[in-house]
Design goal:
Number of domains: 1
Radius of gyration: 29 Å
Number of helices: 2
Structural class: alpha+beta
Distance between the termini: 93 Å
């Protein structure tokens, strides 16, 4: 079979469809790969949202009440502090975070600092489906020597007792 060449006005031999069928296969594979990628992305987004929601529920039920009670007790004893919550922000690649900053003398003035204020920080690590626990026991540049990540907790492990014990351990080291 011959066809008219659009450029030269002459005839050229047409290639049989067999070898060109690979193009169809390659295009179909690309479409399938894109669909798998879109499906996986939707699944990851759903898992991320579900874990973040579960973290919020655990914090509302077990973390925030303990942090608020400890702040109240610190204030009654001449100390102070603040609870910071940073919601998840996918645009900035930031996970959900809860931090209790504590002061052993009066309220915190200005921005809390790792080398000045004892703290307990919980970060929802969605990719790991775990909560990274960071803590610091420095008080006004003195005290313990711990600052940063110390362990990971599963959501199912978080209880008011566990959070209370962790904060009391931080305060004990801060007074040393």
């Amino acid at each position: 079979m011959q066809t008219q060449s659009p450029r030269a006005g002459g005839t050229t031999a047409q290639v049989s469809p067999g070898p060109l069928e690979e193009i169809d296969q390659l295009m179909q594979k690309r479409l399938e790969d894109e669909q798998r990628s879109a499906d996986r992305s939707a699944e990851i987004t759903k898992e991320r949202s579900q874990f973040s929601e579960e973290f919020s529920e655990v914090c509302d039920a077990h973390v925030r009440p303990v942090m608020e009670a400890i702040l109240e007790r610190l204030r009654c004893s001449g100390g102070g502090g603040v609870i910071e919550e940073r919601p998840e922000d996918l645009a900035r690649m930031q996970d959900h975070r809860f931090i209790l900053w504590m002061s052993l003398e009066g309220e915190i003035v200005g921005t809390p600092r790792l080398d000045r204020h004892p703290y307990l920080q919980l970060d929802a690590e969605v990719a790991k489906r775990a909560v990274t626990v960071s803590e610091g026991d420095m008080w006004a540049g003195h005290g313990g020597n711990r600052s940063g990540p110390v362990t990971e907790w599963q959501l199912s492990e978080i209880s008011t007792t566990k959070v209370t014990e962790e904060i009391l351990a931080i305060l004990r080291r801060s007074f040393q």
